[in-house]
Amino acid sequence: MTENVWSYQPTAGHLAGTDLTGYKVEATDGSIGKVDKHSDEVGDAYLVVDTGVWIFGKEVLLPASTVVKVDPEERKIFVDRTKEQIKAAPEFHRDKHLGDAGYRSELGTYYGTGAPFGGRPA
User: Fold this and answer.
1) Alpha-carbon distance 64 to 14, whole Å?
2) Which of 122, 111, 80 is nearest to 4 (CA)?
3) Which top-level group of life is the source organism from (predicted)?
């Protein structure tokens, strides 16, 4: 388990500096959209995913720890959450939340050990 939700898991296969923009994102139960923006910053890594029509054109912010595999050949990223878990996460608004420490804390709690739906396995 990743102690910091804002860091990639060592087994995910993510290489710092890789441009993930445009990669498809797959939840455990299907596609959720494409990466629109991402950060590789140590301790502050995340993906902004454009969900398209799936949840009515909204974007979601996923902490890097949710990434279980990056497949550069297929240009896909696999995350360890269901579509419903991602849909139920605190709503993300790029203009308001990208630099908001309170939102990041709330999202970190949701996706970290205190997350609903059982959270991450211990």
Assistant:
1) 10
2) 111
3) Bacteria
pLDDT of residue 52: 81
Q: Nearest CA to 84 among 27, 23, 35, 34?
A: 27
- Separation CA 96–CA 4 (nearest Å): 23
Question: Could you give the maximum distance between any two Cα atoms of the chain, in Å?
Answer: 36
Residue pLDDT, tens place only, 27-47: 999 999 999 999 998 888 999
Is the pTM of the predicted complex or chain greater than 0.70? Answer: yes
Residues 6+ apart with CB under 8 A from 120: 1, 65, 80, 111, 112, 113
pLDDT digits (tens, 9 = 90+) for 50-76: 988 766 768 999 999 999 999 999 999
29-38 burial, b for 16+ CB within 10 Å, e for fewer?
Answer: eeebbbbbeb
Alpha carbon distances (Å) from 13 to 50, 54, 67, 96: 22, 27, 9, 31
